[in-house]
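Researcher: Here's a chain I'd like modeled. Treat it as a single chain, no partners, no ligands.
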Amino acid sequence: QIAIVANAIAFISTDHSRRRYALPPKHSPPRTLYSTPMNIPGAQSRIAFTAIEQQIPSQQQSNGQLCRTSTSKSHTTIANARDHIFQLGAVVGQMFTLFLTVPHDSIEFAERPSLDDDPFWLEPSGEKEKVANQLGEVFLQLFAAAAVCGIDLCDSILKKVELNGRKYPVDLCKGKSGKYTNYSEHTGITTTKGQSTINSPKKSSSNAMEDTTTVEGITLLIRNFANERLWNRYHTPRNIALALLGEVGELAELFQWRGDEGGRIELSEEELDKIGQEIADVTIYLLRLADVCHVPLGDVALQLLEARS
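Model: Modeled as a single isolated chain. Structure tokens:
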């Protein structure tokens, strides 16, 4: 009887552990779209932003995910642009539904991602794959939203990272989570001054690994940006997801009172800059989220596009 009880406890314990970390049953080999952890620089293939961008216009709408996009502003109506923002909200909402079941943020590490992260993020599983795929869906929708407004997503990201470097000086914000306005007296950048990226330089790489034309290179650039400022204790999956949601809200604000009537969208240089910055902010957080979740976002995005075609 003791042996029977002991075996039962062991079974329940193993089953609970598998459900806690969403591990697949032993008899079912895990399926995954990814094979190498993001914390090993250079372990993955390098996916150029242009490799994804060039495939976006040819994609057909599929269940409200990604709609056909024209990169020519002359063929873009305000309704079409707003549709893309709605679609972005929809795929981010689906991402958040999945994040309701991921492990809560808890452990702090000197650097992130780490091989000491929660097993959910390190072990292949069906649930992890769903999260990875949804991050890929969000990524593709960001490309579509940028394209419909005639915005170069990669350039916008690099310009915003450069601006963020000036807004958050390393020596002033190490280990702090405050807003950039806390440093305005030192940087001169306020809510109304110094925010434009029109004609501003793009962030350059500090080493060969920070290839500023690829998803992996820019992901590493963003990781190093966070490491320099000792932000890793804040950069947990659920924290980053919430930060991303906040940026989606700021992007939506730029379209909320425009209505859907009228012809092609007319955006001034200043408006395009603001939209580009907000799309860049969402994408920067998405790249960082994929990084701390051990998801190779470029690979996932390309495989989603292949599956559709």
